Amino acid sequence: MMLEVKDISYAYDNERTIFSNIEFTLNKGEILTILGPNGSGKT
């Protein structure tokens, strides 16, 4: 099983871009971690 993400973007309150045009593939058993400072929109 695999998760494939292509061309995903997110902006907080449509003003502050958190990430833009992200692409990645996760294979079974792999782990993805999202890191950033407090208040940066990780949740």
User: Count of DSSP E strands?
Assistant: 2
Strand order of the largest sheet: 1-2
Number of helices: 0
Share of residues in helices: under 10%
Order of helices and strands: EE
Classify the beta-strand content into a percent band: over 45%
Quaternary structure type: single chain
Q: Any descriptors?
A:
about 45 residues; 2 strands
Verbal overview:
It is a single chain. By secondary structure, the protein is an all-beta fold. The chain has a domain at 1-30. Helices cover 0% and strands 53% of the residues. The protein has no helices and 2 strands. It has strands at 2-12, 16-27. It has a two-stranded antiparallel sheet. A hairpin with a 3-residue loop joins strand 1 and strand 2. It is flat and about 35 Å long. The termini are far apart. The mean pLDDT is 88.
Short description:
With 43 residues, this protein is mostly beta strands.
Outline the fold blueprint:
Layout: E1 2-12, E2 16-27
Antiparallel strand pairs: 1-2
